[in-house]
Amino acid sequence: MTSRWPLVKSEVQGAILRHVRAEGTVTRGQLVEALGVSRGKVSHEVGQLISAGLLVEEGLADPVGGRPSSLITIPRSAGVIAAVELGATSIDTALTTLGSEVIAHRGEPADIRDGPDAILGVVKQRLAELLAAQPVSADEVMAIGIAVPGPVEHASDLPIAPALMPGWHRSPIRNWFAGEYAAPVFVDNEVNLMALAEHRYGVGKGVDDLLFVKVGTGIGAGLIINGQLYRGANGAAGDIGHICVDPDGPTCPCGNVGCLGALAGARPMLEQAKAAARDGRSPFLADAVAAGKDIDGLLMSEAVACGDRWAMSTLRTSGRLVGETVAGLVSALNPALIVVGGGVLHWGPGFLGELRSAVYHRSMPLATRSLPIVTSELDGRAGILGASLLAVEGALSPLEAAGRSSLQVLTG
């Protein structure tokens, strides 16, 4: 296998590629102005990147009082990024360009509780199938980004005590790709990466202080502060699903009692729905079960749409609990925008209405005076786009990429 590492030879090369990614096409003069680097240095580094196949000259800029300048862009032939989103109940694999344009994608149901051997085995097989269908060789994979539904220690990329992922504690995910891909592998919490994608491509584009809230099987938040993804000291920032909202509440998979995720997430609500169907509190669900239907998110959305009082009340309660928790973050962080995503959002409008009401009621007026609370524009694509961004930005940082390209030295 041919190694392309390090992909960039200097921080200037990385900065050039990041700027070209953001703008699409640029001239050398625009790079000089944007990066504050001398024209000679830019010309030299651009020449090196063209020789490496990472940049090409493509057309001419409109002339402004002189000779037209060549436009520089990143070709699709530069290579591909492998992006993986592991959800609690799904696997999404994709190939993207260096600019995070999705060129191949596959999604399928899965249970993260099956463990790393089963789940990562499927991931490797799906990536191989996507590459073969393009066709693209493993040598052309520039980096791999993986989103997981649990806390990840940023220094090591290891999942640490993930409540929704039994059997994954300190699992060396990067090692699974050693020997098959001569590329660095980057791992992070999926909600962090959704926040990153919303900030770069979604409704939060250009917003420097952003809070992204996901409510699905679990509940989490991703924080963009001063334009940067904020992970905290170790990588655990934003894990709001384990904030206690009821000291007398049920036991959470993390071992504590009364966690937000154990009360307001999709999994506990579906368990409550099964009980409500059995004892008749929800006539709609009772009839559906009697007809042989499984209780899932789609059935819950049907129950809400049909006006089932139990389902509507349960969904509103979830929105209120999440909103009250998010109100604390608003008071602490004063974000400029809140973006809400995740499967529960699609169960009915009552959820978002209660969340908004709780945030505006419980936060200080100054913090909410001009605070929009909106739904995700990227929705199901946010995790994959975020995983691609994670991989690209890591690959374009020489020190980060170097630290992850020697996969065999990772200790679990």
Topology record:
Elements: H1 11-23, E1 25-26, H2 28-35, H3 39-51, E2 56-60, E3 70-73, E4 80-86, E5 90-96, E6 102-109, H4 116-133, E7 141-148, E8 152-153, E9 158-159, E10 185-189, H5 190-201, E11 210-215, E12 219-225, E13 228-230, H6 260-264, H7 266-279, H8 283-290, H9 297-305, H10 309-333, E14 337-341, H11 349-362, H12 365-368, E15 373-375, H13 382-395, H14 398-405
Parallel strand pairs: 4-7, 7-10, 11-14, 14-15
Antiparallel strand pairs: 1-3, 2-3, 4-5, 5-6, 8-9, 11-12, 12-13
Helix pairs in contact: 2-3, 5-13, 7-8, 9-10, 10-11
What would your notes on this structure say?
The protein is an alpha/beta fold and 412 residues long. Helix 2 crosses helix 3 (39-51) and helix 5 crosses helix 13. The protein folds into three domains: 11-75, Winged helix-like DNA-binding domain superfamily/Winged helix DNA-binding domain (Arc Repressor Mutant, subunit A, Orthogonal Bundle); 79-195 and 382-409, Nucleotidyltransferase, domain 5 (2-Layer Sandwich), CATH 3.30.420.40; 206-376, Nucleotidyltransferase, domain 5. Mean pLDDT is 91; it is low at 406-412. The protein is built from 14 helices and 15 strands. The two termini are 25 Å apart. The strands form four sheets. A five-stranded mixed β-sheet has the order 6-5-4-7-10, sandwiched between helices. The chain has a five-stranded mixed β-sheet with strand order 13-12-11-14-15.
